[in-house]
Amino acid sequence: MVRELNALDMDVMAIDSDENRVNEYSDIATHAVVADTTDEAVMKSLGIRNFDHVIVAIGENIQSSTLTTLILKELGV
């Protein structure tokens, strides 16, 4: 997904708690950050409010996906 969005010349912030994954996408994402998306303070500090759209793709952990989505909604994204 990051590659496709990059190919469309879109700014992409890739966030993951796994440093290896972040490193994998650091060359193609506009911003690649190691962070916990379930921490509202962290999301605020990343300037996530400045993004028009977000895609939450947290694989197997439905709780993290739900919490991240709730935080994004509270932040107005």
From TrEMBL:
Gene3D superfamilies: NAD(P)-binding Rossmann-like Domain. Residues 1-77 form the RCK N-terminal domain. It comes from the Bacteria. GO terms for biological process: potassium ion transport. PROSITE patterns: RCK_N. This is Potassium transporter Trk. It comes from Lentilactobacillus parakefiri.
